[in-house]
Amino acid sequence: MTDHADRRLADHARLLVSCPDRHGIVAAVAGLLSELGANIVASDQHSTDPEGGRFFLRMEFHLDGLDGAREELERRFDEEIATRFAMTWRVSYPSEPKRLALLVSRRDHCLLDLLWRWRRGDLPCEIACVISNHPDCAESVAGFGVPFHHVPAERGSKAAAEAQILGLLEGRVDVVALARYMQILSDEFLVRVGVPVINIHHSFLPAFVGAGPYERAWERGVKLIGATAHYVTAELDEGPIIEQDIQRVSHRDTPAELARIGADIERTVFSRAVKWHLEDRILVYENRTIAFA
Amino acid sequence: MTDHADRRLADHARLLVSCPDRHGIVAAVAGLLSELGANIVASDQHSTDPEGGRFFLRMEFHLDGLDGAREELERRFDEEIATRFAMTWRVSYPSEPKRLALLVSRRDHCLLDLLWRWRRGDLPCEIACVISNHPDCAESVAGFGVPFHHVPAERGSKAAAEAQILGLLEGRVDVVALARYMQILSDEFLVRVGVPVINIHHSFLPAFVGAGPYERAWERGVKLIGATAHYVTAELDEGPIIEQDIQRVSHRDTPAELARIGADIERTVFSRAVKWHLEDRILVYENRTIAFA
Amino acid sequence: MTDHADRRLADHARLLVSCPDRHGIVAAVAGLLSELGANIVASDQHSTDPEGGRFFLRMEFHLDGLDGAREELERRFDEEIATRFAMTWRVSYPSEPKRLALLVSRRDHCLLDLLWRWRRGDLPCEIACVISNHPDCAESVAGFGVPFHHVPAERGSKAAAEAQILGLLEGRVDVVALARYMQILSDEFLVRVGVPVINIHHSFLPAFVGAGPYERAWERGVKLIGATAHYVTAELDEGPIIEQDIQRVSHRDTPAELARIGADIERTVFSRAVKWHLEDRILVYENRTIAFA
Amino acid sequence: MTDHADRRLADHARLLVSCPDRHGIVAAVAGLLSELGANIVASDQHSTDPEGGRFFLRMEFHLDGLDGAREELERRFDEEIATRFAMTWRVSYPSEPKRLALLVSRRDHCLLDLLWRWRRGDLPCEIACVISNHPDCAESVAGFGVPFHHVPAERGSKAAAEAQILGLLEGRVDVVALARYMQILSDEFLVRVGVPVINIHHSFLPAFVGAGPYERAWERGVKLIGATAHYVTAELDEGPIIEQDIQRVSHRDTPAELARIGADIERTVFSRAVKWHLEDRILVYENRTIAFA
Hints:
Four copies of one chain form a homotetramer. Chain A has 293 residues and is an alpha/beta fold.
């Protein structure tokens, strides 16, 4: 990245807001930003219902010398706007990219696709590490200059494995992405990890929740197969959906062929969902996502 | 249609075969057709497994003077081929288009789309009649010169209504298509009607079986909605899938908007599935379809 | 529509703005709307370049008693905002739906699709009339209760035909849509008609500009065919593109089959583009469109 | 691959036929295969016109002990069938995978996608080498255990560079694929290389032939961008199209963003086209392809 780009990035911020909908929110927010000298370069909003619903806002803005103005900006926003409108809010600074950890099992297609996009500068993040219950991907990951940790998930040692993973992640990551990690994480792990966890499921949810979706898709004789990226919650494959896509299949395709075709959708949907998360485009509300994509 | 086209149609036939897979089937079938002077103009085949699986074949062929040769063709095929390979088979003659009945409730999008394709010559069938439990579509149907029957489906009179429908259909149709008919047909009806029944379901099956799929899609927060055309069996929304398609939606779309967007997919999938059925492109095996489309 | 919906529509407006980009635009606009008591229910913005580019804004807002407040709203917006930011702007009121005229030749698929959607309440417009150089669609149009005018386009009488069409349209329409109207409109017509004209072209522009796109697509052996809705300008098929879509085809498809498959894309793209125009979602800048869809 | 899979592969063959259409072709071909004890496991056919057109056939068959029977099979096919029907034909043996060379410049997305698929066993070929006019991809290629050759393409040394490339390829490859190789190959090169050359062009051909397609797509304001895989002929971007696909874009996307989005389509279309070629699914006729995909 050039110095010029660095400087621009340094002056860039994203504001995320969620609050009860009422008159004057945009005017108040835009008014303060304008007063502070910021230029709004992108803005998305959504209301579940203008009368008594919930309002969501994502604004990207540019402010010369943002670094020195951050404290004032956040303080005044909190005092003058957030309290008045009962907002949940945060400001995110692209100059401080999120730290991502990847968990993977044997199949490498989601992992490699994401690492490759990261290397070419399409994913705004640092990659803290890759953790796998198999050693298979070690060499590929090394080629990207990313730390790789092999944490076996033997039957009976799940608690120990999760503790080891938590030890590797603690304080070092802002988001975890499961790039076809075939172990089910315990509720305790999800609580203790303390950051969002994104999963890619190899079906068009809510069809084929759980194991063996391609086999079951074949049995049901569907004409399209899909993949779904979602935030992980305690209930298996029931978390808020971030993104989905599908591909056409036919009676000629065996379950193995469905898995091969599906791999292309999985990696695309997975990379897209992670990218949107990293760019603060996804807000969660009542187990659904608002995707300002 | 011109005389020329009529003559070509008259000499055209489709052969549908299903049998245990083994060596020499294509050679035997093609050999007989060649002997009889037929030219194979299209051919599709599928085997669930070359070793011990089931084999499916669809051949379109052209034979000058087919009308006079039909009896010999069918007799020789039965004697020389079908018995030898333990085939289930039939020959279908495009010069005898299938007779289609349409059942509909209030929403007219699937019905109108199909009638309009039929009028412009894209659907090779006769339309015997349209039957509805509401009078709403009567005028539209009249515009196409198709008989319309209003058979109310009041609570408690279902058996009588189904009997009346059966009376209208009996001996007059080769296939029934439910163009968003919102009544569940009884098992007895399905047995007595004696012809295939095609339904369009407004979800991407097996997701959202049953009532209210758009509301449930909205609740689950899916990013794509779909429609599924399938043959009706005794088990609700569980019959063999003929065709499916999807459309992208977002957090902005209310359930009503999903229904509006979905209507476009429903009519497309419905018309495509009916067309394929009319052209003998769909074979059913173990609750899945082989779609030679 | 219920009284309740009418009342809501009556209090609804859309603001469209285009101006040089600079700090404070959103704050100023949102500030005035807030002062007037309006609630912004949707907002989209785009900047070609935050430094020295052009800024585009579409805001939907709700204001109780809008009817009585319109004059003040427009006057204050002009005086306090528009002049300051050198804006091109307009406010559009959904309670005054646009008046649409449709021109068509023989093929009815785009016309009927649009009329169906309009009858279902999906297209917010009045349909002033349908004009055709052939009588073929007269009966279908009559079924919708829409006036139909047959204006033949004989060789040599083009000027007279165009004059007759202008006479039918003058002062009665806000937008004209060419639903597969196979006559090229003269530059003079385009100037004199004085309202936007939307065309549907049966190719994926800029591929296959001009006549016979399906034949030429077949000759080139493309694997996808498309359709393009665009505003008509003096240069044939070169106007700003509103929407495009494609469909997969194969070596099996003859030019006639491409035309049949393409009809489905044409009508979808056409209806979508007209709907977006009617909802004031399309802004034109330097022969491209900003589509707030 | 297991021994079992190896054995099955060894007994597998593909027959490709092109000839004037007439009665009895399928019967004759299937008859001979049946006589020889082969089982047809897949069959596709196409006729440009049953009356006086050209006929194309692709049959996959299985024959126990094929290796020992190849000579007899080919001899009898030539003598008994090919001559009689004036066929152009060949038999291809999956046990002898094609040898592929890849040419690439700086952008690695098509190259890596193909190498990943190859490593996973999805592409039935040997990769002879990767040749590039830049050293950038050397390390990535090394990770796959594939030879990499850097052949600079300086201004004025084109003939020498092409001669060097020809020296590397001569007698060692069955197909060449240009994975975003940004040099135009001379007619002489195409003649001397003597094997098919597949190119990926970053537009939806025939739109945006030549240089800078994303910039030109942006200027024209298209709403979809595409990629096209085609066989290279002397005329730039005019060779037979193997496969195409598109992706939706919007007014928000800059040319750089179009290139980023387009990279995903390019690699998908490229890998698909190369795979189909390797599986003998593509026949060329009059600058179009018959794609038995």
